[in-house]
Specification:
3-stranded antiparallel beta sheet; YbaK protein; globular
């Protein structure tokens, strides 16, 4: 569970964006998948989004936010980015760039601002959940508010 204020919480507080943080009980002895997190928190997996750090073939990084219930469509995201192909960024590179541990990466409050893409399915919901920046901490936020906060784009990437 979260201890102290996460970078995502600080980002929302300092920049005046609206969202609600919620702790979800997760096992401490192992990592949990986004689907397990949804189940543990009683959340609809279509409304729980995972934050992925990806690397284009030219070495540039970006953020992809996709539903826990779906996979990232790498070809679709590559088209959005203007790259030939993309892969998940190496763990060390993702951690160093965002400041977040894998499995607790929030799209908000990252060390370095990256181009951000939110899957278009988010637009079907009044609010969605994304990582709050710590294991077991989720942020409920309106998709439009998330896009403003990240200066992101809505795109069909899942």
């Amino acid at each position: 569970m979260a201890r102290g204020e996460t970078a995502a919480q600080r980002f929302l507080r300092l920049n005046g964006y609206k969202g609600t943080f919620r702790e979800v009980p997760v096992p401490n002895d192992r990592k949990t998948s986004a689907l397990e997190m949804a189940e543990a928190g009683g959340l609809d997996p279509a409304r729980l989004f995972k934050t992925l750090i990806v690397e284009a073939d030219d070495g540039k990084l970006a953020v992809a936010i996709v539903p826990a219930s779906r996979d990232l469509d790498r070809k679709a995201l590559a088209r959005e980015i203007g790259a030939k192909r993309i892969d998940l960024a190496a763990k060390e590179k993702a951690v160093k760039t965002t400041g977040y541990q894998m499995g607790a990466c929030s799209p908000l409050g990252q060390k370095k601002k990256l181009p951000t893409f939110l899957d278009a399915s988010a637009d079907a919901f009044e609010t969605i959940y994304v990582s709050g920046g710590a294991f077991g901490l989720e942020l409920e936020i309106a998709p439009g508010e998330l896009l403003k906060a990240t200066e992101g784009r809505l795109a069909p990437i899942a």
